[in-house]
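Pasting two entries for a bug report.
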Amino acid sequence: MSLPSILENQIKSGDIHHAYIFEGPLTADKEKVARSFAMALLCRVEPGTGCGSCATCRKIKDGNHLDVNLLRAEPSKYSKVLSVRDEAVDQMIERLKVKPSEGDRNIAIICDGDTMTPRAANRLLKTLEEPPVGTVIVILSENMNNLPDTIRSRCQHIRIISESNPDGKYTEKARKVVELLAGYNNYSSIKKEIDKIESTKEEAFVFLDSMEDAYREELLKISSSIKRDQIFKAVSEIEIARNKIKRNINVKYTLKSMVLAIGG
């Protein structure tokens, strides 16, 4: 998998940062990009890009490279709520203090970074402030605003684009819905657009990603017809809708409720 150009340029120049946030929607394979980044950093056959087939690259793909520590959200003994556990972060921090076993870097990939507990984030902060030499920490996040400011300020932000919408299937539809919402158009017009979306989680997530991108475009415009507070409200409602769909609430009902909340 090709890396974002900013990462490729940093690898070529040797100007590797010690900490990154890979932010992207649920449909963006952030973990795959992070593994590709680790391969590019550790592969000795094709350093800087990663060959994808040597012993080092295969170990990274399979998740058993000793110098690549990958954390995921897990339930606790007392709750089914998934989060990156405090003890897992503690173990990762201790591993980063040890000299690499197979290469010249220790790499930590924290999946579901949005779910870190405050204690885990505070523990990680100390390592971000004084990282062991050669350490690279990559935090994967759907919305980095869910991470503490202290974490965000010490990481380089890399936006990961979804590959689920390569032909822009919902790009124009999302822009149209955003335009209709901005113009306070009749709900029936927006409902017709929502009815055209397939009622699967995957399709809904792609549409929501496209809506977020449309609002980001508005935010970056020098002169937008949509006020900043309306954009922030809309993005917040999109995240709420995404979480509802994750919990298996009906897709069409959730999307229609979302546009009502944004336009209300």
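Entry 2 (this is the one that rendered wrong in the viewer):
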Amino acid sequence: MQTVPYVDLDRFMGDWYVVANIPTFVEKGAHNAVESYALNDDGSIATTFTFNKDAFDGELKTYHPKGFVLDHKTNARWGMQFIWPIKADYRVIYLDDDYRLTVIGRSKRDYVWVMSREPQFSDDEMQRMRDFIASVGYDPKKLQRVPQQGG
């Protein structure tokens, strides 16, 4: 799966609202999902993933996987470690010039995450992302919005 040509890690760090996805079992029913990244001194990426389970006022779930850049030429292919020693495939396959919208995919094309710096996500943007993920081999019918309340 083709990644973007280059990711400026400093610009990529910070909060990203998960506005649409093909969810993992953990994320089913997620509301207000936010993925936050911070560079560690050793080059790894501290990640905090939070969401409310099944409703805006549902139980707050928080996960702390650790990211590892696997391709230092592009910084676009990572391993994401939830459980040692397994590093899940994590690829930046779309990133706009302003670092406002990104798509994270996996070579298996089983899960995908559309993330934005803002929680609002228009129907037109949703359709554009649906078309994009279809163009890289995903089933666009599986892409679903992640309910977001605001920022």
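Dev reply: Rendering is fixed now. As a check, the viewer should reflect this: The radius of gyration is 14 Å.
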